[in-house]
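Consider the following assembly input.
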Amino acid sequence: MLQYDVVVVGGGNAALCAAIEAAEAGARVVILESAPEHMRGGNSRHTRNFRCMHHGPLSVLTDTYGEDEYYDDLLRVTKGQTDPTLARLAIRDSEACLPWMERHGVIFQGSLSGTLSLDRTNAFFLGGGKALVNAYYACAEDLGVTIRYNAEVLHVDLSDGRFHSVTLADGEQIAGRAVVLASGGFQADLDWLTRAWGPGAENFLIRGTPYNRGVVLRDVLDQGAQSVGDPTQCHCVAIDGRAPKFDGGIVTRLDCVPYALVVNRDGDRFYDEGEDVWPKRYAIWGRLVAAQPDQIAYAITDQKAQGLFMPPVFAPVKAETLGGLAQALGLSGDALEKTVARYNAACQDGSFTPGVLDGLATNGLEPPKTNWARPLDTPPYYGYMLRPGVTFTYLGLKVSERAQVQGAHGPLPNVWAAGEVMAGSILGQGYLAGFGMTIGTVFGRIAGQEAASHAG
Amino acid sequence: MLDNTPNLQDEAARQFQICNSCRYCEGYCDVFPQLFALPEMTAASATHLANLCHNCRGCYYACQYSPPHEFDLNLPAVLAELRQDTWERHARPQALARVFHSHGVAVAAALIAGFALLFFLMATLRPESGEGFYAYLAHNAMVAIFAPAFLLPLAGLAYSLRSYWREIGGGRITWASLRHMGSSVARMKNLSGGADQGCNFEQGARYSNARRYAHQATLWGFLMCFAATSVATLMHYGLGWEAPYPFWSPPKLLGVPGGILLCLGTGALAWLKLRADPELGAARVWGGEMAFVLLLFTVSATGLALYAATGTGAVPALLAIHLGAVFAFFVLTPYTKMVHGFYRTAALLARR
């Protein structure tokens, strides 16, 4: 049996940060990535930025983003469902992580066009997350880390309350003095999603890697590891209904909602489309659509809204009349026309300003549209189909401040976890852009240091 | 491939649409900011962006949608094909461009024809007297051969570039656009990867500046050799100072280091090309591209060899070989990879 100091299960950002830290501490490290080489990196290959606390300008980040403001932003999206100690640890450590990332090959760029609101809080990776993943793999290779692709771990041997070895899909066993579990959530296991959500989950699209099936998570939980989080909670956004079932990534997002009217299968509105600017609302719309019949919704705009949002990857359905649009979308024309008529009648005079809360709200409509409410009256009309798109699930492993996994009878002495597999500790619900990479980097580094120190 | 222009345009437009919804690659080069600023994609815009692309390949290795993903993005390849199509479409006659761009063997045949022509001329036109190289081929004979071999292809290239400029709607050239172009070319900014980390070529997903530096050596070496010839022409006609020139003279001081740079640069480019993935370029013209690099290498290497052989019996043969290579290089200019420099300069100048 092959024997390493540190076995890292997973091949995304958290796994790579752990492997690099452990290797730099002198440990013999193996990365077990279940995907083939061209799909390596888990969901990290779809990411684009890192949310980072900083005092004064740091690399590409402007101004200051302090601990309390960062923490308040997190409380707002999670509605308090977070572990304050772990959350503040992730936030505080993020500042030292950014220079560490640069030293290990990550290159940052200024905030991308269309995302100017993030230039103070989020550092963007030049080329996106796959470029970051490439840089870390190159770094790990240079440090002598053994990298195994197509190495799906089916079982983690935790007999006697400590880690001994892992078993791969082909039966091979690999032993280690310590293990770092960084194998992601379970969102690509549609059966598990269906058990958690009900049959509606079959209509969910999975935005990221098809390799995060939660096999290791399930296996470790079955052996008594403590879990955190609610299996129905996840990072879930509204995306184009025509997106691929898996791996559609960033381009399947639809940014039109604030300038649209959104109706369900029955042609009824169900939520305030103009509640806030889109970067602060995109992450709640997945759950909103998931709660609608058939887990589907349609965003309707008219000619006036064209050019106000990022171009979608799939061309919208287009028609000269609302009835024609309804027919093309498979909706009832009467229902859509009635909804639009009611909405148009509730629109008020005022000035429309895209991108900022302009207060142009409907009057006497339920639910209201509280900003950017202009009548839908200028053909052609456009329709965009929305489906829930799951990024990652939040049910995960309970960890300590040192990223140590908690067993039924206290901490497991040589088992650490990082990344999406433990993010539920901090993200009880909701999502903060770029925070997944922060959790992965901070806890990946801690897990790697701790595992190497234990093995050494 | 020329018959497939509309398909190529459609494929480029399909890929651009995905890029435009993603934008992760915005910082790599000039192509992406210009793409994202377009109100809509047109055939002219696609042609322009294709010629602006320097094939640094950063966007391919960073792409979450590169094959085998079902979106199947390979922007470097489709833009290389589209560039190739531009060069062949605007060349006159197009048939020559099609042959020499794609077939290294044709370039080699032209080179051998160049050698043969010069050996023949030197055998039949051996002058009565003359100094240096002019002892083997008279100055007037050289001018009679090389002036048309240089000027006619250049005129053809000028015609092609004008036609390209009209297609993309390049606009008026301003000082600002000249400055932008000059600084981009001088630093080879579009091979810098956006943060001076270089591009992706011979080491796959790892960045490297090797190709950028090799290209700079080639470009500057070529320009120095060209300057050496130009200065010598001025000295000959303007000052009545005829070749051969001593080492401490402008033609030699430009030509010798220029030749060394060109030799090293093209040698390195050929070596790197062997290590890069041909599927990220216009794979069908790999042979023509490689032959062109080797032709430039031959021009510089034989030039240096000729200088080294001064005063020996090898001079006549080396002179025929060097002049034959130069002749082939001149004549093939509008029909080989040599055009990329002109089109790319135009793309960097275009204000659309």
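Chain A touches chain B at residues 38, 45-46, 48, 107, 109-110, 112-114, 125-131, 134, 137-138, 244, 247, 249-251, 253, 310-313 (CB under 8 Å). Ask yourself how this observation constrains the way the partners meet.
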